[in-house]
Structures are given as structure tokens and as C-alpha cells.
Design a protein that fits this description.
This protein is mainly α. 78% of the residues lie in helices and 0% in strands. The chain has two domains: 113 residues; 159 residues, no CATH class.
Length: 274
């Protein structure tokens, strides 16, 4: 069953690629249908896992990664629906495929969370961060499309991207909207995570909990993400940064997010590996 969402995400990727290359409205509608189907099947699987263990499958990096893919798909579909623009699907769908491969091939077993993770603070912490990261993934895709179109216009050689992407102004507005939403949930996640860590350290002797500090790679990089996106918002509102500068920061910020999810989440952290 776990392979079904992956196959549907692959089908959506092919559909968005066809839509982007051929500017086919039929191909675009088909791609969206596949992505909606993938999201619904993924929702069903996560729902079954939640019913089985009594809580969202957020324990462990692999489970959190699967939920992140699901939330990213929802965030993109919302963006596509509200903007009536499918061209960015060619960038987001392959990312969903690449990330969903990990939960699919790992055949992970959904773990029952230990007592230290049964706090509602933990659920709010993880849910907020994953929603923030999903928003940042959409912002990254928008940033990439902005850079591609900006480069083409700067070279005064309009054509491929100019005929397939929204205007720079629309992309800039969409990018900042996604960043603002992501920053809000990231801030909530960081604050709630700090409250939960202090509470857990006072109540549990688990060495992983007691070792939590800003020096832990996963915590440090999460704080670094907050600094990067906070600076991006500050620079836009106070310094007047727009366009390619904010697009570049959106790409850099999400690269840090992926760093935290994959190499750090699997290999480098000693406290966030419950």
C-alpha cells in the first residue's frame, strides 16, 4: 500500500512535465488529478497509521518525512488552486517523488511513541515545523521559477520560460506569501519545542532528552532556518528587498531545511532520534 502514493506522485510528475513542455491544458488537468489522487491515498495511509497507533505517525525521521511530503502536496495544491497556475508543478512533483522514495523503500514500521513524546507540546511542535517546512518547499519552487524567468528576461532572450511561467510580480507575491506563512509556523514550532524540551528535561531521565541543547545539530539548524527566513522578511519590509534576492533566500532556506531532514535527521543528531 505504501507504494501507491509514490506511483501516483510519479504519474503527476510526468503529467506536469508534459503540461510544461507542450503547454497542454489537458495534460495539466490530468497532472492535477494524479496529484489529488496521490494526496488522497497518502491521507488514507496516514489515517490508517494514526488509527493503528493512536496518534499521528510523527515518531522518527522517516515517519515525519512521509507526513512532510503529504503536507507539501496539500500546500502546493492550495497554491495551484488559488492562483490557477499549474506551471510550478513540474518542479514540486519531482521533489515529492524523491522524498517519498525514502519512506517507501525503507518499509519502516510505525512506532508507538515513548512516554516522553506523549505531551501535546510535542505534537504541536512537530506539526508546526512540518507545516512550516511544507510552506518553505512551495516557496523554494516559486523561487526557482522566479530565478529561471529572471535570468531569461535579463538575457533579453524571452521564450521557453517566459511563455510558461507567471509574471515576475506574481511569483514574487506568491513567494512572500508562502514564506510569511512558513515563518509564522516555524516560530510557533521553535517556541513550543523549547517549552516541551524544558518540561521533558524536568520530568524524564532519558539521556536523549537531557542532551537537548542548541548545540545539537538538528536544533541548531532549525534555529538557523528561523534566522534566515526572519532576515528575508526583515530585508523585504525594512530594506526593500524584492525579486531575485528574496527568491535566492527562499532556495537557500529550503536547502537548509533538507539538510536538517536528511543527513542531520538520520545520521548526526543524538537527541531527535526517538
Amino acid at each position: 500500500m505504501n507504494i501507491a502514493p509514490l506511483l501516483l506522485y510519479v504519474a503527476a510528475s510526468i503529467g506536469y512535465g508534459w503540461h510544461f513542455m507542450k503547454r497542454s491544458s489537458r495534460g495539466g488537468r490530468t497532472a492535477t488529478s494524479f496529484l489529488v489522487a496521490a494526496t488522497l491515498v497518502h491521507t488514507f495511509i496516514i489515517g490508517m497509521q494514526t488509527t493503528e497507533i493512536g496518534h499521528l505517525p510523527l515518531v522518527g525521521t522517516t515517519g515525519a518525512l512521509s507526513v512532510f511530503v503529504w503536507l507539501s502536496s496539500i500546500a502546493y495544491l492550495y497554491t495551484e488552486t488559488t492562483s490557477n497556475e499549474r506551471s510550478m508543478g513540474v518542479f514540486i512533483a519531482p521533489l515529492l517523488v524523491a522524498l517519498q522514495i525514502i519512506p517507501t523503500i525503507s518499509r519502516y514500521e510505525v512506532a508507538v511513541r515513548p512516554p516522553v513524546l506523549e505531551s501535546p507540546w510535542f505534537v504541536l511542535h512537530i506539526s508546526s515545523l512540518l507545516f512550516a517546512y511544507a510552506s518553505f518547499s512551495v516557496a523554494c519552487v516559486i523561487g526557482i521559477t522566479y530565478m529561471l524567468l529572471f535570468k531569461e528576461l535579463k538575457a533579453r532572450h524571452v521564450g521557453f520560460f517566459y511563455n510558461r511561467l507567471p509574471s515576475l510580480q506574481i511569483l514574487d507575491v506568491m513567494n512572500m506569501r508562502a514564506i510569511t506563512i512558513g515563518w509564522l509556523f516555524l516560530t510557533i514550532g521553535v517556541i513550543v519545542g523549547g517549552v516541551w524540551a524544558l518540561q521533558a528535561q524536568a520530568e524524564f531521565d532519558d539521556p536523549r532528552v537531557q542532551a537537548m541543547s542548541v548545540l545539537d545539530p538538528k536544533i541548531f539548524i532549525a534555529l538557523l532556518c528561523w534566522v534566515v527566513y526572519s532576515f528575508e522578511l526583515y530585508a523585504r519590509r525594512s530594506v526593500g528587498w524584492t525579486g531575485w534576492r528574496t527568491a535566492k533566500f527562499s532556495i537557500i532556506g529550503f536547502a537548509i531545511v533538507l539538510l536538517n531532514f536528511l543527513p542531520v535527521g538520520y545520521f548526526l543528531t543524538r537527541t531527535h532520534n526517538f
